[in-house]
Please model this.
Amino acid sequence: MVHCKPKTSTYIALSLILLALVAGLVSTLGHFASQRTYPIWLYLSVTVLLTVVILMLLVKMMAGFKTISAGDGKIVTMLPLRNQTKVYPLAEVIAWDEEKVVANKREFRQLTIVFSDKNSFTISNHEHVNYDDFFKYLIKKLPNKRPKQKAKQ
Model:
């Protein structure tokens, strides 16, 4: 069975950035509480900006924490933060497609799978482990569910 889960290194890097942002927010609030050497509008704008960025990063981390497994004629999707696990037989896959983008001499690939209950699941090669194995599994088991590729213009 092929298991695709988020890369640990991605979440470590995002967590370090999140800690730096929280430290900046705490520092700003501490400076305001003790010294108040800057105008109030500066404290308010920095605090609001840092809070919004922290919340966006947290939402991105929580929404991106999902796993998908394939094997034995089924696909299992897990969303741990929602406590939700769904098992789909391969017959319930309506379509799947891979999107490729080349930027800064690196290839970013994203795989989207659409199921019969209109749920879709998206993974990428830079954020998930075993992406290539999962892609090969889909090519082997569901080649007719992939839309025909458009001709390059």
